[in-house]
Request: fold
Amino acid sequence: VLGLKYLIAQKEAERQVPDTAINEHHGLPSRLDPYTLRCLHFYAPFAAAAYMDTSEEVMEFVGSRPGGWEFLRAEIKSKPSQPAHFVACCQQSKACVIAVRGTKTLRDAVTDAHAHSTTFEYEGGKALSHIGMTAGAKWLYDLLHGIIVSQAAKGMHFVIVGHSLGAGTASMLAMLMKAKYPTVKAYCYATPAVADDGLAVWSSSFVTSVVYDYDIVPCFSVHNAEKLRRELEHFKWADLAKADIKAAIEKSKQEMDKKIEAMLLSESKLSRNLAKAAIGTAKITGKLFSKGKSALSKLAADAKIDDDDEAPPPYEDVVSNPGVPSGQATPGQLPAQLQWQQQPKASPASSTGSEQAVDSLSKPGHLVPPGTIVHIYRLTKPDAEETRLAMAICYGQYFKRIALSYTMVQDHFMDNYVDAIAYFHERSH
Reply:
């Protein structure tokens, strides 16, 4: 985990906004056809509505959509490879929507965790797909068979939507339906890696997957996780951690020395005052008992206190050596968590070894997001007052590595997808 933290920090430091993003997408188409953009914008709320807690909420949502939508059924509770979902149709647009919910419960996480490959047969032959989400898609197809047949008889075309787990399942369901219902479309948001290269390209004519910036889910697969593990093995993060620890200790020592110095200075002032008081007392006592040998006068004599009130106090030697000699503090150092930026980057040899280890894993069976990928990315930093976005049209092969970023988790949230698509929809008019 600590190594991953340092690797993320290095990736972020190497990234230049917006130059890095532009260079990474150089040569890719940057415009989406207006129809697909309108569909992505229209159906995004359906994918979000699949997360609603009750059937009544879903019914209310469906009834509020423009165009006269009719609620058909909903399953709010889920089980492993049996995702929650709802179905609605619109007579005006002749669309029947199947919206599949993403991960919301531990049962859904079990489906996510079944991430190894299974054989998937389609009209193009045999392929590999995500075992958990493929099983969920097959379960849905069997469960909704009656509704699908009846809606098809009414001339409806099918639109499958979902976010995250729901997107992966929706895309696989569309692939299952494609042979019998050729007009089926899937609009998927934050689609996980569920298909091998051949299946992903084959589905590009009817599956559209949106990926927002550095969302980790679309590029998180068994193969990519292994690539990341190997990259961490070759990444010299221990040296960076040692430098941080050393800097943190040095900083703590300097702060402690300053506190000790302040404390001793305070004590020296008190000592001076006590010494002055003792001198005054000795003078008075000497006058009153000039011929006597009281304990107090003897103590004053042993201490060699003279008549000069401005004499150096007896603790002056201690004060002159407070713990850190003056001038040895080093103000202005970076905080410990930023010290790695001052360390040398990994050597070319280690980088080459890491790249070779990563590249050796690019082999058949590597799962990627399916369909045509609409990758929306930022042209500004995440904390910028005004966000500027761009898009690139690509395929799943673009996501054969986990792109580490501080925002890779929050970029997965559905509201980011809704806002990003709305950004382009507003500018298309």
The CA atoms of residues 72 and 147 lie 9 Å apart. Strands lie at 69-75, 85-90, 95-100, 117-122, 125-130, 157-163, 185-189, 207-212, 372-378, 389-394. The mean pLDDT is 78.
